[in-house]
Amino acid sequence: MAGRVIVITSGKGGVGKTTTTANLGVALAQNGRRVVVVDADIGLRNLDVVLGLENRIVYDLVDVVEGNCKLKAALIRDKRTENLTLLPAAQTRGKDAVTPAQMRDLMAQLQEEFEYVLVDSPAGIDHGFHTAVAGATEAIIVTTPEVAAVRDADRVIGLLESKELYEPKLVINRIRPRMVRRGDMMEVGDVLEILAIPLIGIVPDDEEIIVTTNRGEPAVLDGHSRAGQAFRNIARRLEGQEVPFLELEDGSLMARLLKLVRGTKAAS
């Protein structure tokens, strides 16, 4: 059975796509799944750094599609998590170095070997985006609860539909409950009302994740990280499990968030 090819995208940069890709990849691999994470941000790769694998790169995605090496030679096995593999992007080439047709062929090869192929899309909606989504069978949209990020995510949903990716899932990243209560940050329900797609995860803002990311250690490897727990929960939901959303700060807030989420689902 062919594996699932899931593109992680957003529209706006800096909302946590690469962090989400790395953490979901590790979490799914920890669950025993064979996972490859693909950095499609050609020219601006970072997924290797987030995973702490930057010193192991010999070949990259562009080398594979241009025939400079076999696919197997470009794949890098994670040093800490069994079953997790990285296909890095090229650092010195432009986003037009790979065509959507080449990407589709590459995804077809990877899904024969892996149960999950997670594609880290570049920001924006230009050529790099169209290449990253080529060959994907599913999509996850990452946004922060900010007006600009949500607006760009809404645009991306429309573009995904034009690619016949009709049911993307939503991750709301870096939510700060205190700012939400003060009215300085959008509420979960507001984001869901605008985007109108299923919510698969809410990730709390966590300063520690900046530290672990800089060390090349995804948060899911830290058993005490709340952001890490949120990503583990998302991975379980991808597997079809019913998992409660994290209690972000206190019971009353969680009750309110769940009420908003359930109300949106009931209306959809």
Automatic annotation (TrEMBL):
Biological function: ATPase required for the correct placement of the division site. Cell division inhibitors MinC and MinD act in concert to form an inhibitor capable of blocking formation of the polar Z ring septums. Rapidly oscillates between the poles of the cell to destabilize FtsZ filaments that have formed before they mature into polar Z rings.
NCBIfam families xref list: minD_bact (TIGR01968)
PANTHER family: SEPTUM SITE-DETERMINING PROTEIN MIND HOMOLOG, CHLOROPLASTIC, SEPTUM SITE-DETERMINING PROTEIN MIND HOMOLOG, CHLOROPLASTIC-RELATED
Matching Pfam families: CbiA (PF01656)
UniProt keyword list: ATP-binding, Cell cycle, Cell division, Nucleotide-binding, Septation
Domain annotation CobQ/CobB/MinD/ParA nucleotide binding: ranges: 6-218
Family: Belongs to the ParA family. MinD subfamily.
Name this polypeptide is given: Septum site-determining protein MinD
